[in-house]
Amino acid sequence: MPHVLKPDDILRRAHAVGSYYGFTSLSTAAANKKASSRNPYPTSLNLNGLDPAAREVVGMLKHVRDAGLTPSAQEPLFLWHSNAAPGRPSPKQIIVQFHALGVDHSIADAVLIRAVRSFIGDIAKEDPTVRLNSMGDKETRGRFARELTNFFRKHGPALPTNCTECAKKDVFGAAEMLLKSEATETLPSPTDHLSESSRKHFEGLLEYLESTDTPYELAPSLLSQGTSWTETCFEINSDARITAWGSRYHELAKHFFKGSIPSVGAVIRINIENRTEIPSIKDRSQPRFVFVHIGDEAKRESMKMTDEFRHARIPLAQSIGVQSLTEQMRYAEIINPQYLLIMGRKEALERTVILRERSNHTETFLPLDGLVEHLKAVA
Q: Taking 90 as the threshold, does the pLDDT of residue 268 lie above it?
């Protein structure tokens, strides 16, 4: 008998996963800003030319802009959003989105993938599969487009007619059609044509996933759906009821914010049967700990421990994807916890963490082994 997906449970778990991984609900961020105005979609944006996932993303970006939220490299935004809300009947398909706006570093991709994988695993009650590829930047897409054009010219007689006809107008669309067909010809891979910057970004993401024990599989046949997407693209699936698509989307973000805002997001679609009114959701208790980490080594250790903190229900919050110590400390001031957990490169290599009691600045060095049990006792 399949597991029953309850709308309120989906939102509750989005709240929990978001908090532990550093994602704030868009409604909370907008309420804290206390600024709201409704403006039309930018005239520069061709809504009819967007694929379904891109349309969901631009809807979220419009909410962010209208709320007066302005992501930047100095103050990035890690947000989650849903079309379901307490007090309203559940939609037939619940859509949950996770986004990181303002972070160019591959850590944003890694944190996003970890968070979405944890969220889907929680609601599906099984480990989801992670498949990823990279389409690269504009330079890479140009190279890959030329390679696909040559491929369709060379192998045209052996390919389905609809694919070769489509390739005359849209080689990426033709490639997707070919992948869905039973043709035996092997398409070229975009990762063979990555620019230097795109190659480094993709390698950085893979290093984060491997060093944090995040299972994944490379999927050369996974292509981004349309021209809205760049760099990393990924799928995270559990079964037919729960699917997720994610990618970088700098070009979409340009329409809503001044300058270039590096952005990555994931759109999760959850098909449910129970469409009753969603009950109110109890707020999570005030975190007693805020985890502050400096450097890649500390970030990796924090990512590995996040699900352990969450499953043990340690009242903890953190901003894993935020590299700035100043911004992390500003976040801690807002949360105003009783304790700070502090880890730098030295502590990460020694597998320790500093527990600081904020009222008297008392510091205790704790080993990572057994940390959860120690925090349980303190909490």
A: yes
- How distant, in Å, are the alpha carbons of 135, 140, 225, 329, 333 from that of 147? 13, 11, 18, 48, 52
CB 291 within 8 A of CB 99: no
pLDDT at 196 over 80: yes
Residue from 345, 343, 337 nearest 367 by CA: 343
3-class secondary-structure state, position 248: strand
Residues 123-165: pLDDT tens digits? Answer: 988 889 999 999 999 888 888 889 999 999 998 888 888 888 9
Question: Whole-prediction pTM value?
Answer: 0.92
Torsion of CA 177, 179, 227, 169, to 10 degrees: -40
Domains of the chain (ranges; CATH) run 7-136+195-271 (3.30.930.10), 138-191 (no CATH), 289-378 (3.40.50.800)
Q: Which DSSP category does 44 fall into? A: T
Contact 202/222 with Cβ under 8 angstroms? Answer: no
Element (H, E) at 264: strand 263-271
Burial of 259 (0-12, 13-18, 19+ CB in 10 A): exposed
Kindly report the backbone phi and psi dihedral angles of residue 50, in degrees, each rounded to the nearest multiple of 5, phi listed first. Answer: -90, 145
